[in-house]
Amino acid sequence: MIVHLYTRCWNDAHMLPFMFRHYDPIVQRYVVFDDGSTDSSLEILASNPKVEMHSMPPYSDPTSRVASGTSLQENCWQESRGVADWVIITDIDEHLYHRDLNAYLAWCKRQGITLIPALGYQMLSEIFPDNDILLCGSVTTGAVSPAYNKLSVFSPDRVRAINFAPGRHSAVPEGEIIAPDEDELLLLHYKYLGFEQTHARHQQSQTRQREKDIAREWGHQYNWSRERLREDWKQVAAQIVDVTAADYRASDHHPWPRWWDGYRRSERLQPLSVY
Questions:
Q1: Which CA distances in Å does 132 have to 24, 89, 260?
Q2: Residue 258 — φ and ψ, nearest 5°?
Q3: Inter-helix orientation angle 195-206/226-237, to 10°
Q4: Can you tell me the distance from the alpha carbon of 244 to that of 181, in angstroms, rounded to the nearest whole number?
Q5: Residue 94 has pLDDT above 60, yes or no
Q6: For residues 106 and 112, is the Cβ–Cβ distance under 8 A?
Q7: Can you give the residue range of the structural domain that contains 73?
Q8: pLDDT at 131 over 80
Q9: Is 258 inside a domain boundary?
Q10: pTM > 0.90: yes or no
């Protein structure tokens, strides 16, 4: 089974080792678009023989980093048609989790499933972990986060277009679209790793916001004060669960409608509005 992963990078040296340790067992090719990193990201990327590096193309919307990134994610994967069984579109701090991810992807392919949305979690650790660990084996507690219910995995041969909303928080896919009847895949968002590190990252990201991003509050959390971030941190910490616990059934903890419900083979409803 061939899997290609597409992502963007900007000063992500602190997270790249975690990404490779997590995805190397299933990914044969990484395509990484670097957006002007000035830390050691480029050296780390070059050290992995599976990585194909590109510079971020000129922004399709000069007024928005978010919109330009979404446009890139909408189109970059199409070169994998006829080559890969699955493509993964993700951010470097997003780890797709299943107790046996490789076997699950193979099972989905046999079942004729063409896209696999994931249930979202904001993962949290009070300290930033050593970068030689597997995050989903060591930092296993997080809070349910419907905002991170995202589509990251789909078949490049059977999906014609994705039509991501900004930030990939929803989509209106086109083609032969079949989602699993039950949701087993999780998206573990490892943003909250060490409070001070997270706050510093927010401050860095704030400097890269552009006119439309600010006007539409895309990435609004980057503008939070230390006190506002601490408030949200405490709220997440109060709701954490161990997503890897043997008796934990993620779907039971996501009671809200999911934008992909209408794409399940068992339902065949009209897709929910995502805008």
A1: 14, 24, 35
A2: -110, 140
A3: 130
A4: 21
A5: yes
A6: no
A7: 3-248
A8: yes
A9: no
A10: yes
Q: Is the pLDDT of residue 68 over 60?
A: yes
pLDDT of the residue at 188: 98
| pLDDT band of 160, cuts 50, 70, 90 | very high
Cα 259 to Cα 99, 108, 266, distances in angstroms: 24, 19, 15
pLDDT value, residue 266: 73
Question: How is residue 124 annotated by DSSP?
Answer: E
CATH code for the domain in which residue 143 is found = 3.90.550
Indicate whether 31 belongs to any domain. Answer: yes
- φ and ψ at residue 45, rounded to 5 degrees: -60, -45
Q: Look-up: residue for tokens 């909408």?
A: 74
Collapse the DSSP code of 10 into the 3-class scheme (helix H, G, I; strand E, B; otherwise coil) and give the result: coil
For residue 74, is it within any domain? yes
Nearest alpha-carbon partner for 233 in 120, 140, 143, 131: 143
Tell me how far apart the alpha carbons of residues 27 and 20 are, in angstroms, rounded to a whole number.
9
| pLDDT tens string 190-248 | 999 999 999 999 999 999 999 999 999 999 999 999 999 999 999 999 999 999 999 99
Question: What is the number of residues in the chain?
Answer: 275
Residue 178 to residue 262: CA distance in whole angstroms? 9
Structure confidence at residue 100 (pLDDT) = 95
| Domains held by the chain: number | 1
Question: Token match 């001070």: residue?
Answer: 196
CB 263 within 8 A of CB 115: yes
Q: Report the chain's terminal Cα–Cα distance, integer Å.
A: 34
Residue 199: CB partners within 8 Å, gap ≥ 6? Answer: 226, 229
Strand locations in 75-208 (E)? 86-89, 94-97, 115-125, 141-144, 150-154, 159-161, 174-175, 186-193
Give me 171's structure tokens.
Answer: 């989509």
Q: Which pLDDT score, from 0 to 100, does residue 274 have?
A: 35
Take residue 241 and report the two structure tokens written for it. 């669960």
